[in-house]
């Protein structure tokens, strides 16, 4: 049996407008590779080095624009990786992902209470060492659709003090489903982003390939949230040559309906979360080694995480454990019918470095 050793350097080359750690903490479901903007801004305080933004407050313009409802963001993430032994052959590569856009609080800018507008684009470049390593899981999570895309173009309405929220437009399911802030720290797609078995089926829409869709969420209290999403499926949705601008509806289109229930709690003051979800698909999925197709298709998944130690009472520093699983009994079209992932992260292992993490993860 060959053993593959891969040396990888995952570097946040720049967090130009919003702090990555803050966005990850604020949004429980990040996109496939990068955090989503929170729609809020925090003006850099004190010295430039201690601030949240590479470009600072723009001479006060950032604060002025934020007060009017306009928040701008950009992330540039990069990976340099080398397969030094094992696998198929030795090799090295690099890739980058630029994600930029704006969020507009329409209540501040136009007086539309509860409305938010999102606009973003993506540019990906580079390649992966996947062909050098082998296997079904990508070891460089920034690779997939290496070109430029129009991504999120959406409106969202929240009402009843945020208990209800409806979003619609050009979006993806990975913006809101099957994710966790814990997953985004891994280089391998066996854990990074969303539960990979759910994405492998090719019928969960994902970053950077936006489609028409809508998502409703109901949050009656801090301990529970329910989500329902409906997304267009097309034969061209993974085609990078459209650059995110295939707005057409066709008779061959299908639909993906995502449902997710979320429970949040604190055990001895330490937070935990449990999600249970399903993707119900009406789309002709090709079966393996056959000319036949499967329709409909159902995929089920579950996620759990828990903080188990804390450096002090109420501290976010400490050990966190998480686990995920995904299953379908329709094995003919499913690349990975069953998957389990387990992980551990120690947040803030060093004094004065509260956002550093020591991480471990494994997938079966």
Short descriptors:
364 residues; mainly beta; Porin; 14-stranded antiparallel sheet; two-stranded antiparallel ribbon; 5 helices; 45% strand; disordered N terminus
Folded structure, characterized:
The chain has 364 residues and is mainly β. The chain has a single domain (5-363), classed as Porin (Beta Barrel). It is 8% helix and 45% strand. It contains 5 helices and 16 strands. The chain has helices at residues 20-26, 61-67, 106-110, 130-133, 196-200, and strands spanning 5-15, 70-85, 91-105, 115-126, 148-159, 164-171, 211-221, 224-233, 254-267, 270-282, 285-286, 293-294, 297-307, 318-327, 338-347, 357-363. Strands 1-2-3-4-5-6-7-8-9-10-13-14-15-16 form a 14-stranded antiparallel β-sheet. Strands 11-12 form a two-stranded antiparallel ribbon. The longest helix is centred in the first third of the chain and has 7 residues, at 20-26. The radius of gyration is 21 Å and the shape is globular. The two termini are 17 Å apart. Residues 1-44 have low confidence and may be disordered.
Largest sheet, strands/sense/barrel: 14 strands, antiparallel
The CATH class is Mainly Beta
- Rg over C-alpha atoms, rounded to the nearest angstrom: 21 Å
Main sheet: strand order: 1-2-3-4-5-6-7-8-9-10-13-14-15-16
> Treating each run of at least 4 consecutive H or I residues as one helix, how many helices?
5
Q: How far apart lie the N and C ends?
A: 17 Å
Order of helical and strand elements: EHHEEHEHEEHEEEEEEEEEE
Return residue spans where pLDDT drops below 50 for at least 5 consecutive residues.
1-44
The general outline is globular
> Which superfamily, in CATH terms, is the homologous superfamily?
Carbohydrate-selective porin OprB
Q: What oligomeric state best describes the polypeptide chains here?
A: single chain
Report the β-strand fraction as a percent range: over 45%
Structural class computed from helices and strand pairing = mainly beta
**Name given to the CATH architecture:** Beta Barrel
């Amino acid at each position: 049996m060959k053993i593959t050793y891969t040396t990888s350097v995952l570097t946040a080359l720049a967090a130009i407008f919003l702090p990555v750690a803050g966005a990850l903490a604020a949004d429980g479901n990040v996109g496939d590779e990068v955090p989503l903007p929170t729609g809020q801004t925090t003006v850099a305080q004190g010295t430039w080095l201690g601030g949240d933004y590479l470009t600072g407050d723009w001479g006060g313009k950032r604060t002025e624009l934020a007060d009017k409802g306009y928040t701008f963001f950009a992330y540039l993430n990069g990976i340099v990786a080398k397969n030094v032994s094992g696998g198929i052959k030795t090799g090295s590569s690099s890739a980058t992902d630029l994600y930029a856009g704006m969020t507009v609080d329409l209540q501040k800018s136009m007086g539309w209470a509860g409305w938010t507008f999102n606009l973003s684009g993506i540019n990906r470049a580079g390649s992966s060492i996947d062909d050098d390593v082998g296997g079904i899981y990508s070891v460089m999570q920034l690779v997939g659709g290496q070109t430029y895309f129009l991504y999120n173009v959406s409106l969202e309405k929240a009402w009843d003090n945020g208990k209800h929220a409806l979003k619609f437009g050009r979006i993806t399911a990975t913006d809101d489903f099957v994710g966790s802030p814990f997953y985004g720290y891994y280089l391998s797609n066996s854990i990074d982003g969303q539960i990979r078995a759910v994405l492998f089926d090719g019928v969960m829409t994902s970053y950077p390939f936006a489609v028409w869709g809508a998502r409703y969420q109901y949050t009656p209290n801090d301990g529970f949230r329910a989500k329902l999403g409906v997304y267009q499926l097309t034969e061209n949705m993974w085609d990078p040559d459209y650059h995110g601008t295939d707005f057409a509806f066709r008779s061959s289109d299908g639909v993906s309906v995502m449902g997710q229930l979320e429970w949040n709690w604190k055990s001895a003051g330490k937070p935990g979360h449990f999600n249970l979800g399903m993707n119900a698909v009406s789309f002709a999925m090709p079966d393996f080694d056959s000319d036949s197709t499967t329709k409909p298709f159902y995929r089920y998944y579950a996620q759990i995480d828990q903080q188990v130690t804390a450096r002090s009472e109420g501290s976010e520093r400490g050990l966190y454990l998480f686990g995920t699983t995904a299953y379908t009994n329709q094995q003919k079209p499913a690349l990975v019918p069953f998957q389990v992932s387990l992980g551990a992260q120690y947040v803030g292992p060093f004094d004065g470095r509260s956002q550093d993490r020591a991480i471990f993860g494994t997938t079966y």
